[in-house]
Amino acid sequence: MNISATENMQMAVQAVWTHRFRSLLTILGIVIGITTVVTVASLLSGLRQGVVTFFQELGPDNIFVFRTSGDPSMPASIKERKRRALKPEYAENVKRWCTALADVGLVLYIPAVVDGKPITARVPGFESENIGVSGNSPNMAEISPRDLDSGRFFTSEENQRAAHVAVIGASVSEALFPRGNSLGRTMMVDGAEYAIIGVYAKAKGGFFGENGMDNAVDIPLRTAQVRYPQVEAYMVVAKALPGQRQEAFDEVEGAMRRIRRLATGVADDFSISTPDQIVQQFDRITSLIGLVAIAISGLGLLVGGIGVMNIKLVSVTERTR
Fold this sequence. Notes:
Helix 2 runs antiparallel to helix 10. Helix content is about 45%, strand content about 20%. Strands 1, 2, 5, 6, 7, 8, 9, 10, 11, 12, 13 and 14 form a 12-stranded mixed sheet that branches. A two-stranded antiparallel sheet has the order 3-4. A hairpin with a 2-residue loop joins strand 5 and strand 6. By secondary structure, it is α+β, with helices and mostly antiparallel strands.
């Protein structure tokens, strides 16, 4: 006895309709499994692209030396906090001893809370606590260049006389001056007045659309040292000559070990990294997340498959005498 395709479809639809609840659970399991895979893959792919763009904007040929690993503006582990602080003179020593470098800059990160008080930026009628204050050497404009929406970066002369000038991020400008025209205005940061001489363009990349550089309040390095003599969170930023980043990395690491008087075989008591290395660390983390997501989605597909087999078994059993 031959059964046409139409009759097959009718019997299939009838079997599904007879067991509506079971069919719904089966479809739901399959949908959850597929949706989990697609969603996680899309999120990880988009997040990785944002992270790559973020670190590319910091400078693909740059080498970062800091006391601890991770974000300099975030708390470090207890073990790393016991390390000796980096000193500002390290930058000159590294520049003098390393031949594969184009230039060396220095950044002093000011913590969000100093002497028990949070650092805020304010103007009449507006205030923002979501800021990241840092002192930068004037050559950071060339070492790690960023697009400016308006204005300019501070000069060596302004740095030498510890001028109270600042270059702010796009988010800070929007928070303090919603109507625009922040260039040339003044603001109060931690009780001191600063003239805004530049506004950064909206930063590219970031984490889930957020980029910490948009909250930057960059002031001259000397100004930061005078204002916050108790802060020692220095970062040395070395820019390698084109095509010589690996040689520069090895030279900088050797110079830092020499400066810190580390014996052969002793582990580094500082963190040294490049944008590529940071992205590789991120890839290792996201690969674990991807494996977990695949396991969860696989479980959903397995449940859905069991549901399909169950419906088929019931359908065949009902037609068998």
